[in-house]
C-alpha cells in the first residue's frame, strides 16, 4: 500500500469511525477493490487529508454537495461523521439552506429530513450509552 492509502485509511477512520470502516473493509471484494483503493487514496488520502480547510468545513461542504447533487444515500453516514468533525446540527442546517437557494428546495428538504432522523438516532444512541 502507498503512503496516500495509509493516510487515507487513518483519515477515513478518524472521520467515519472504526466500526464503519471495519464493516466496509469486511465487505470489500475483488470486484470493488480498485474502487475502494481509489476512494481511500483520492477522497480520504488527498481531499479529506488536506489541511487547507477544517474537517468541520469539509463536512459542511460534503453534505451540501451530496444534497445538491441528489446523492442522498451517503447523507446519513456524513451526518454521523459530524460527531467527529465538529460540524454542529446548526452548521448542517446552514449548509442545507444554501442548497435550498442554489440547488433547490426539494433537495434541501429531503436532506434535512435525513439529517433530522440521523441526528435523532445519534441522540438515542448516546442516551443508551449513558444508561
Automatic annotation (TrEMBL):
GO MF terms held by the record: peroxiredoxin activity
Residue ranges of every copy of the Carboxymuconolactone decarboxylase-like domain listed in the record: 35-117
Pfam families: CMD (PF02627)
UniProt-listed NCBIfam families: decarb_PcaC
Protein name in UniProt: 4-carboxymuconolactone decarboxylase
Taxonomic source organism: Jannaschia seohaensis
Amino acid at each position: 500500500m502507498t503512503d496516500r492509502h495509509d493516510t487515507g485509511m487513518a483519515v477515513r477512520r478518524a472521520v467515519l469511525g472504526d466500526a464503519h470502516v471495519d464493516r466496509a473493509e469486511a465487505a470489500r471484494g475483488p470486484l470493488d477493490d480498485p474502487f475502494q483503493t481509489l476512494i481511500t487514496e483520492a477522497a480520504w488520502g488527498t481531499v479529506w487529508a488536506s489541511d487547507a480547510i477544517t474537517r468541520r468545513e469539509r463536512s459542511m461542504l460534503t453534505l451540501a454537495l451530496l444534497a445538491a447533487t441528489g446523492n442522498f444515500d451517503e447523507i446519513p453516514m456524513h451526518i454521523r461523521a459530524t460527531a467527529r468533525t465538529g460540524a454542529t446540527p446548526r452548521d448542517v442546517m446552514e449548509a442545507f439552506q444554501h442548497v435550498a437557494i442554489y440547488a433547490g428546495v426539494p433537495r434541501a428538504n429531503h436532506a434535512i429530513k435525513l439529517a433530522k432522523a440521523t441526528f435523532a438516532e445519534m441522540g438515542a444512541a448516546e442516551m443508551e450509552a449513558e444508561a
